Amino acid sequence: MKRRVWRETPISVKLLLVTSFLMNLGFYALIPYLTLYLTGSIGWTVAMAGLVLGVRQFSQQGFAFLGGVVADTFGYKGTMVLGLLIRAAGFALFAFCTAPWQFFLAAVLSGLGGSLFEPAMSAAFAVLTPDSIRKDVFAFRNVLTNVGVVGSQVVGTALAAFDFTYLSLFAGAIFAGNGLIALFLLQPIEVKHERHGIWASMALVVRDRRFVRYTLILMGYYYLNMQLFLTIPQLAQDVTHSKTAVGIVLSSVSVSVILLQMKVSQWLEGYPQRLTLIGLGTFVMGFGLFLLAFADTLWMLVADALLFALGTMIAVPHMMDMVQRFAPPEHVGAYYGFNGYSLAIGGSVGQFAGGWVYDLAQRQEMPWLPWTLCLFVGLWVAWKLYRMEQEMAQSKSDCVRMARS
After folding, report:
1. Alpha helices of 40-75 — where are they, by DSSP H?
2. Which tens digits make up the pLDDT trace of 236-257?
3. If you classify domain 1-192 with CATH, what class do you get?
4. What is the annotated signal peptide range for this record (predicted)?
5. How does DSSP classify residue 195?
6. Of 55, 118, 149, 238, whose Cβ has the fewest other Cβ atoms within 10 Å?
7. Cβ-based neighbour number of residue 62 at 10 Å
8. What pTM value is reported for the model?
């Protein structure tokens, strides 16, 4: 982050950046190894373990809209603290689960916690960050997310090899600590505008057709993004026959974001067409995935993964910034919560359909099929967002012309 931007970043936003890093460290240290624990020590099938993870994701993203409305109604700080403490209880509970219903209860708790703190935290970032540096702050947040992912691999591997109980308690402690940091150090972040009822807030967001359309289009982005956790590792395993290679490919994505995100954001800061940039980034992701159809060595896999990472570096900071630009000031949390449906639906479809198409391609001896589909998804998102930007610009021009007349 540039020194000027860091100097202009309020103390509260810097505190939010620290908690964001710690949350990603705790989350990614636990979740990948939870699957291994369920299928290994507990003896569950992969499908059953996947169901637990699916319940956690649905509990979070499915209720994020309501969580955002709650944050707008009762304040961002209090909602964030409550969500962090509930997530802490859910993660820590995994250490003591023995029966299936107990694991599902822990998954629901951890998901519900996320449905409260995630939209509240995103809204707090948007409200507390000055307009002039908001895009840079979101870009730096993306960097810290990937630093947390890299660090979590070290912590998760070490604790999981020792005992999963300690890994679960560590992850729970990270979120509990973040809750206490927010409670005692973060300034109150109350909505200064007239408050609306929960149902009225929900209705307002749903009636915003342009924002609903934006959220629907982003499902394509998350379809591509989820391949990083599903088909890309599977392809790396199939091509190299080495689990070490899987870690190299995934780490290359995170390390490239850590090193280059701020530079990419700096290159693009003079380009005002944010929706077009999101579409461009998504297309670059899709093209990087398409090139995987021709990858037959580890280094080709890494090169394609780096192109995929470049696409995320272009898209992600603008995706977060655009939500705040759509939202009225008193409904920022609700808008961020509703926007979570793009991840809930797009991510779920990406996991299921992406895996199904990959298996189909293997059976039909058409290895190019899943990656060609990713290219078309990237093209579709880029075209839809470009058209949407053109329509918004035309609408703004018409309004200016009418005002002058």
Report:
1. 46-61, 64-74
2. 878 888 767 777 887 888 889 8
3. mainly alpha
4. none
5. -
6. 238
7. 18
8. 0.76
